[in-house]
Amino acid sequence: MIIVTLIASLAAGMVWQQYRAVQIEAADRARAQSAWILQGALDWTRLILKTDAQGNQQKKIDHLGEPWAVPLAEARLSTFLAADKSAASDDEGPEAFLSGSIEDAQSHYNLRALLGGATVDPLEQRVLERLCSQVNAPPGTAAVIIAGLRDAFPAPASTPSAPGTAGPPASQPQSQNGPLQPAGVDQLAWLGLDADTIKRLQPYVTLLPKPTPVNVNTAPREVIAALFDGMNLASAERLVQTRKVKPLQDPVNDIQPYLPANSQPQATPTRVSVDSSFFIVTGRLRLDERQLEQRSLIERQGLNMIVLARERINQLLDR
């Protein structure tokens, strides 16, 4: 009996080890396949943005009526791989589903505007305060963000500049005593913001590698209203409805009818635009009970699409 028990234990251990080896190999294979599929989807979106740039060489205008702004609804991967409809049957192809979208990063307010010069531009400070008020963020949130960002991105002492000038370059050295330099809105928690506040601000603010104007053809009404002193949500909504019929062609002149009378000139080329260079590409691959999401930041330089950052999130879906 002792010998039989020993043999059974050894056999059970061998079977378990073999089972674990098969599971690990299957997981590694699925991970590699998912990475290749999402990379292919990213290359596809880069081609879409390049095609859009080729069509906009005469007049650079980006708006929500263009093909890049249409999200890809979840579709079975076999529909992309099949040569014709008859080949894409329910019994063929991997049980994987792909979806994604391209978002204009310049439709959000770039927090880099708060980092120009030795002091904060009062106009840009008011913009952030209005945004924080619109999303019902805790009092003092704007001050916390400004203080944290300026501690993390100190202005170069050798090149003082006046308020309203361009912010520090992306290669600016890390502050010795300040917090780590956040690379995106998610990392604003390093400055002391809680998760709920970050979630409220995320649809309206961004942190890009360099200062950028807001694209008024793609920005939501909350960002447009906060961008100008004296402008309310109603006027911003009128602009949003108007651009659906005809996108703005000249941001400086076309936006003037929506601004308060006798207002200071706030619509400058450094603050507003009708074209964009930064885009956020989101790809999602659902495979069985798991979903892999990849978010990439792309900078469009002419016809070159440069991937600046990439983040992958592996999620276990509830069944």
UniProtKB/TrEMBL annotation:
Primary site of residence: membrane
Domain T2SS protein K first SAM-like: 108-210
Composition bias type Low complexity, residue spans: 155-174
Protein origin, superkingdom: Bacteria
InterPro entries: GspK, GspK_central_sf, Pilin-like, T2SSK_SAM-like_1st, T2SSK_SAM-like_2nd
Alphabetized UniProt keyword annotations: Cell inner membrane, Cell membrane, Membrane, Protein transport, Transmembrane, Transmembrane helix, Transport
UniProt xrefs under Gene3D superfamilies: EpsJ-like, GSPII I/J protein-like
Region (Disordered), start-end ranges: 155-183
Annotated T2SS protein K second SAM-like domain residues: 214-250
Localization, UniProt: Cell inner membrane
UniProt keyword NADP present: no
UniProt cross-references to PANTHER family, sorted A to Z: TYPE II SECRETION SYSTEM PROTEIN K (PTHR38831), TYPE II SECRETION SYSTEM PROTEIN K-RELATED (PTHR38831:SF1)
Protein family per UniProt: Belongs to the GSP K family.
Protein name: Type II secretion system protein K
